[in-house]
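Much of our argument rests on the idea that a fold can be written as discrete symbols. Part of our work consisted of pairing the sequence of a single chain with a tokenised description of its backbone. The amino acid sequence and the backbone structure tokens for this protein are reproduced below.
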Amino acid sequence: MPRAGLTVDRVVAAAADLADEVGFENVSLSALARGFGVKDASLYSHVRNLQDLRTRVAFLAGGEMVDRIAVAVEGRSGRAALGAFADAYRAYALEHPGRYAATQIRVDQTLVAASPALRRTAELTYGLLRAYGLEEPDLTDAVRLLRSTFHGYCALESTGGFGAPRDVRRSWERAVDALHVALTHWPREAAEG
């Protein structure tokens, strides 16, 4: 019987909070159980194992992040939408480092396909890029460009990887400007067969 007061949602939310405090890679069922004042075995009524917990944290964080992005881009298009998307992404990554790290793990694709939050992320991202007139296979390439740019920048910024005296926020804005130019002048590739 599940311990009173513990639910899957409470366990996953606590794991996400713990990830932000100690790092996603340091989240363990033992640490989580200690936080609840229960034995490790009590958590197995709510999650199957550590991988299941990490996957659930990834989906929670992905949902939070896409909700933030959706609010930011609503009613915007072009450079304004790209900037709002980028800024919401960056803010989430910097404010919630453990949750953000969870969004970067590899998740079983059958679970991804069943996730409304991850489908919504794809819809928002592809919608943003279709406004630039992109179609496949260019859409996939552009998604990869955005993700790698945003992730790389946030990863470097969060670890203090930018040592030059130039304001990091200003460099971010210039990077988004450069992405807008790249998307506007994207070298189109014909769809395959």
In short: The longest helix spans residues 50-73. The chain is about 70% helix and 0% strand. Residues 16 and 57 are 6 Å apart (CA to CA).
